[in-house]
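Supplementary Note 3. Input sequence used for the single-chain structure prediction.
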Amino acid sequence: MTRATAPGRGGIIGNPSDMYGGTVVSCTIAERAEAAISSSPRLIFDIYGQWAEITFDPELHFLDVAKAVWRYLRRPENGYTELIGPGATFHVRAQSTIPLKAGCAGSTAMLVVILAGVLNHFDIWLPRYELAELARRIERHELGVHCGYQDQYMIIFGGLNCIDLREKENHSEDRETPYASVDPMSEDVRELPFILANTGVQRSSSTFHAEPRKQWEQGDPKRRAGFERIGVLGRLGKKALLQRNWRWLGELMNENHRLTDDLVGAGEINNRLIEAALGAGALGAKLSGAGRGGTVIALHDDPDWMGQRLLEAGAERLIQLKPVPGLTVEKF
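The predicted structure, written as discrete structure tokens, is reproduced below.
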């Protein structure tokens, strides 16, 4: 049996510039996805208790994460069929404590643990950078999700990181496109005065990002300049965090939110929680992930106290940032 686990994440600053060649600072949360892959004479997927035996129908339109991973690995042009074999079978059982469609990268974490677990089951090893890129390719091309690169890199590397994605704005997959630069910050940042507040509204990040990305690709000057600035805020936010300059970091987070709201629309419920956080004394508050629903992040010297204010303002659940290990894979 192979067991793979991976955490969710919270975006501190710079998102959603990871879709546009920007820079983000992000940290894991304690909640994790888990997948167990074992030998089986049949191909069986058991995801969140939803059980299915999979047939080898090339016309089958896969809709869920596990099937998308398997469909990608079965494509001859992707180079894995010779390593795995055309008639391979196994049993995948997966679950997660990461809130679903909450802007904490729960779907990506599920994809990563299934992908890494299946590859390990067949004794296929990939460097972390290549695994992150592979997970992103499957999410974008097999699932049709409009996504950047923050989630895949954060989930696999774990901890607190600054992820620089310059030269990846065109989402090219040719040999001239670099990997992301992952700068670990956990050893240098011992204080994380943040609280995440989940709205309870489930949203797909794909629908949130599709139209702004289209307009950016068409050269819309407002979105070109706006997303470039958010990427700069990510790099400045790294500096403010390392300096423990919380007031400056709060100002950067607030600018990040204003730009995001103007460029893509953060959503009424998120804006209401952000306004409540700022009204209660937060130095900064912004969208952490999944606009028009999802999760917000607030900066305050007493995160627990701020969390109670956000619950009173209508948040459904609080989540703590915690620099935990990223993807782990074990074979028993």
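The chain has two domains: 2-185, 194-319. The chain is about 40% helix and 20% strand.
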